[in-house]
Prior knowledge:
The chain has 13 helices and 24 strands. It is of the alpha/beta class. Among the domains are: 1-160, ANL, N-terminal domain (Rossmann fold), CATH 3.40.50; 388-478, GMP Synthetase, Chain A, domain 3. It binds malonyl-coenzyme A and adenosine monophosphate. Adenosine monophosphate binds next to strand 13, strand 18 and strand 19. Residues 147, 191-192, 261-264, 283-288, 307, 366, 368, 380, 383, 390, 395 line the site of adenosine monophosphate.
Amino acid sequence: MRPVADPPDRSSDNPGDHAGAIEIDGRSLSRADLDAAAAALAERIAGAPAVAVRATASLETVVAVLAGLVGGVPVVPLPPDAGPRERDHILGDSGATLLLDPDPDPEHGAARWDGVAAEIVRIDVDARSSARFAVPPADAIALILYTSGTTGAPKGVLVPHTAIAADVDALADAWAWTSEDVLVHGLPLFHVHGLVLGVLGALRTGSRLVHTGRPTPTRYAQAAAEAGGTLFFGVPTVWGRIVEDPDSARALAGARLLVSGSAPLPVPVFERLAELTGHRPVERYGMTETLITVSTRADGERVPGTVGVPVAGVATRLVDDHGRPVPHDGTSVGELQVSGRTLSDGYLNRPDADSASFTADGWFRTGDVATITPDGTHRIVGRASTDLIKSGGYRIGAGEVEGALLAHPGVREAAVIGAPHADLGQEVVAYVVADAGVEAAELTDFVAGTLSVHKRPRRVVLMTELPRNAMGKVQKTLLG
Ligand code: MLC
Ligand code: AMP
């Protein structure tokens, strides 16, 4: 197997060439310098069981992730604003002994790592080494990606080198993605969308990457005009904001392909985007546990509200509540299950979650509810559990936020839901019974400070009691 991050034809690599170069928020590295910086860091981390990376949207993060890949050390991306509760869980559970930080200097960084057992290592994008490393075995773990379930702390998903290579190759096929493309996005670098597709996809296809920093309409428009962006990635919130800014949207007319994913793209946003840019967006569907498994194709039909067909190497099926097959007739609804080369190796330290999520014959239960037409077109109609929230494309477990709220000394009870939201798809809303004097804003800040900022409740509703059924279980359907 060609190493995950290698471009299709390394022999044609030319440091003066733009192919494979990376620009993030105005700073850039050629592919040759990126490789040399990663090799230098790989020498430093060689032999570690796993390395955590404080994954800011920066060149440093790209160098650190590449160092782990070439050095054969599993990389654990840490949300850069992870508070102590989330951070300590990820570091402890993953067993990372080194923590690579773009900005560990005492003035800015020291307080951040109070009480952390891992050794802090600075990421130096100016270091260079020509060291070569043995290609890691194909089934070696490349990334451990932490993602929320309905309850408890996030689980570490074990993503092998093979799954990433298979997924990027399948998407390159579906989207006609080549080294001629200039990829543009401004997504975070600690999840599948921004990191696996948005960075490793660019490195493996050899396309140049322009990361915009924050994914604002103006910055996407600028990247189209000034950097010649051809391929644009966004979550639906990003596309929704772009169509609210028609001048920026029109600037994307010269692109080749606009791609949406991570959450459902509202049909009106699809249609407005087509109107303003002349491009019907490509929609694709995936999960941390499976990478991207279903997509519309560059050369195929793009129907609003549908996510296309399985990518190369992936199979899908629908089952009912008893595990029986549901027909692919375009109307029958069932739970979507997937199998194939892009699947992860399961959850770290969680055999219980593995057996709940994988069937005996090796298919992954997505928890998403879908229909499939006879010609294979998928429509995602919802999620089986309301306790997994998608807000701005981020997956947030209601149980994790409830746990964080209950750790506040003034909170007695908490129930968290995802309420429909025009901009974010869903917004996190917390219903809380608290001691007198506890204020809503204080609870938002408390969660933002202990977990990651994007998991904070955007609204906190203080109540005297939560609605419960005769068994004492909170009735979330009565909230909201
Ligand atoms: C606000 N802020 C606070 C705060 N309230 N900070 C501390 N305490 C509080 N109480 C700050 C934040 O730090 C941030 O500062 C700023 O306010 C705004 O943050 P935000 O609320 O997160 O921004 P928002 O505008 O809501 O972001 C929208 C968004 C974002 C679309 C840009 O949601 C996003 O990047 N989503 C992408 C998620 C994603 O990539 N998902 C893919 C998962 S993989 P500062 O300093 O940062 O400005 C997957 C697989 C697949 O799903 O299929 O792809
Ligand atoms: P994550 O693990 O963060 O990647 O989130 C995966 C979940 O995002 C899936 O289980 C779906 O619920 C949702 N998702 C991803 N892409 C799409 C899409 N194109 N349409 C609808 N839902 C999506």
